[in-house]
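EI: anyone free to look at a 284-residue chain?
SC: sure, send it
EI:
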Amino acid sequence: MFADARSPPPKVTPNEPGTANEPAAPNDAPPPLLECRGLDVRIESRTLVAGLNLQVRGGRVLAILGPNGSGKSLSLHTFAGLRAPTAGKLLIAGHPISEWPRRNLARELAFLPQNVEDPFPATVLEVVLLGRHPHIPRWQWESARDLAIASESLFAVGLKGYEERSVFTLSGGERRRAALAAVLAQTPRIFLLDEPTNQLDPNHQLEALQLLRARADAGAAVIVTLHDPNLAARFADDALLLDGDGRWRYGGVADILTAQHLSELYATRFEAADLGGRRVFFQS
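SC: here you go
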């Protein structure tokens, strides 16, 4: 089991850089942690996302949903600076992502890919300590603080006592939780997670999203791709629906996650019902 996600995570602190329904923000609010202005995502001759405008501020969770091949993963790669947008601008904490030195960007932003491979032998603790590398000065070893943060991250995902286990001995779900621990150990202000619930059983799916919700409540911006609209409705503040042909919808989950929009998105009929005060979607 994961640690109780209700326990307060560390507060996030800023680093220095080397059809949308925008959530309202005060005039004196700091810039969004991540902002897209007219962003295009294209693969070969196919435009997956066209003219994307969105803002993700600290304290909010954005869920990205769409059918297979609609550009969810490519959009996250673009947000992480791993590929350039075809057009438009991407700002991190108010600065173009191109202005951020890679080391500083790695302190500000953490990315969990859909699949994680282990080409070399390593212990679970060593894998999680990879998340601390942006914070470790060159030619120095991990400090006691780095080790403590890594241990706390393992405890948070329910892997306390696994520190000396070979990563090759973990199940798929355990490996996914170790990868999530490495992202937590990076202590960024922006979390980008591609299907963080992949390979997790139902209770660990909920606990993983509770952890991420807690990071957002502590001031981080969390962006996740999900396949389950019910998880998105439960944990996210905002939703981005990608059709895969350039079209998209973005706004608060109450406005965007509707049975009509989901039916159009997935080309199958969805209905919604209230269950215990929560809106639940199901296929009919």
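EI: The chain has a mean pLDDT of 91.
SC: 👍
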